[in-house]
Amino acid sequence: MTMVEYRNEPFTDFKQEVNRQAMQDALEHVRAQLGRAYPLRIDGQEIMTDRRSASINPGQLKQIVGYVSQADADLARQAIEAADAAFQDWQHVAPDVRAGYLFKAAALIRRRKFEFSAWLVYEVGKNWGEADADVAEAIDFLEFYGREMLRLAEPQPLTPTPGEENRLTYIPLGVGVVISPWNFPFAIMAGMTCAAIVAGNTVVLKPASTAPVIAARFAELMEEAGLPPGVLNFVPGSGGEIGDLLVDHPRTRFVSFTGSRDVGLRINERIARPAQGQLWIKRLIAEMGGKDGIVVDSSADSAEAAEAIVASAFGFQGQKCSAGSRAIIHRDKYDEVLELIIEKTKQLTIGLPEENYPIGPVIDESAYNKIKEYMEIGAAEGRLVAGGDIAEGDGFYLQPTVFADVAPEARIMHEEIFGPVLAVCKAGDFKQAIDIFNNTEYGLTGSVFSRNREHLEYARRHMHCGNLYFNRKCTGALVGVHPFGGFNMSGTDSKAGGRDYLLLFTQAKLVSEKW
Ligand code: NAP
């Protein structure tokens, strides 16, 4: 297969009237489809259940985005069995044919890009730019993993030896349970699913309960792309109710999870115990939380640093695993950078995602309450300099909040809040700033702003995180450009969107023939 070279899908420029109009049209088109019912998909069959969960627009609580059927234990079991049966054929489908489904799906999404963005605006409260980036990343994952499978299917280099023909091939594992989060409900969900599928595995996909409609649209789209029945089984349902069953099932070969630390650790523990009749050691790919930070050196450009800090802390209301929720600033720059952070934070307006305000709602009531609690904790641990309260609107709106003078040991410097709360901490010198940065159990993303080469090289060696950026924000990793994954309690460092990722969904088989 001759392929055009992989390129990142460009972001949409919403300054252009033509794109603004296209987005308005898409929002209107999707608005007319809100409130529909969505089925499970098992072995190519659509199953509507009596029990449905309502997906609510977090920015306008009266608006129901859709009613999604819910898998119970029996249906979850059926989905595993269907995936297991489909694996018998799918594992032998040629890699280029498997990749072809991803390329077709990418083309279908690209054609309906604004529409998918509009679903994200309604379902999780992303503003237009954030929604567009999520859709672009989904396209990127499909294009990238399709090509990666083609690469892995090529003859692999081995040391030649006389009288033998040796071949190493990457074969699939089996049935994969994919459990996805709500914060990149399209990109991460589609990326994890399609990586597993293109490598020759079959999948049972359980999306996050707060973002099941976008996943239902994706499952529908994969069927439109012609994916054979049983390769992708779609089982929305409560993680608390069916999660253990999916993870524990003896035919589950691997679990690909992205979500919180606690759920990831729970899965890690459970998969270690073999179920009766289980033939393998289950594999876990787990990408979890973060407590990411930006270090500002005395030599940094203050304006650039402040802009990056505010963008990293408050983009999508701080609900990114890569969100920069800590700013660690050298004492010489502290007052200046803090002033700029406050000024830029106060400029952020809050309102309906549909109307493209920079700051929208947080995902649901429990997140809203948890973040409010952290605002109280922050008030005791630091000096409130911006926000600190709820914001108006018929949804879960909170003000972007900044606490200054926070001590390195404070809870808001260690615990993942996953909301629009930034802790600012003063460091005596650069090395101390790096020590403060490293002083959490997580290790996902980090940034340094410095013009001092020695300091940058020191940071390169000593900052312990999977994605480290110099003189730029710590969010916004691009597929293929910035392979993504974290250390320590941030997960297994799978490096999604990188050359190592697909290997996690395969096992290498060596066949040696004596001549
Ligand atoms: P979450 O609460 O852990 O949920 C993630 C998924 O796990 C959901 O589908 C959830 O289903 C499911 N789940 C819940 N309990 C389960 C159980 N006992 N067994 C199996 N599955 C279960 O996380 P989230 O709130 O969706 O996402 C936010 C978290 O994800 C943050 O910590 C963030 O840092 C992390 N994240 C990490 C990355 C990364 O690449 N490192 C990327 C994005 C997000 P229900 O929705 O039905 O509960």
Task: Please explain how this structure is put together.
The protein is built from 14 helices and 19 strands. Helices cover 38% and strands 19% of the residues. The protein folds into 2 domains: 19-288 and 493-514, 3-Layer(aba) Sandwich (Aldehyde Dehydrogenase, Chain A, domain 1), CATH 3.40.605; 292-478, Aldehyde Dehydrogenase, Chain A, domain 2 (3-Layer(aba) Sandwich). The strands form 5 sheets. The protein has a 7-stranded mixed β-sheet, sandwiched between helices. Helix 1 (17-31) crosses helix 4 (113-124), helix 3 packs antiparallel against helix 5 and helix 4 packs across helix 5 (128-152). The chain is globular, with a radius of gyration of 23 Å. The chain has helices spanning 17-31, 73-90, 95-111, 113-124, 128-152, 187-198, 212-224, 239-248, 261-271, 302-314, 331-346, 365-381, 430-438, 453-462; strands spanning 36-38, 40-42, 45-47, 52-56, 64-69, 164-172, 175-179, 202-206, 232-234, 252-258, 283-287, 292-296, 324-330, 383-386, 401-404, 421-427, 445-449, 467-470, 506-514. The chain is an alpha/beta fold and 515 residues long. Bound molecules: NADP nicotinamide-adenine-dinucleotide phosphate. NADP nicotinamide-adenine-dinucleotide phosphate binds next to helix 8 and helix 9.
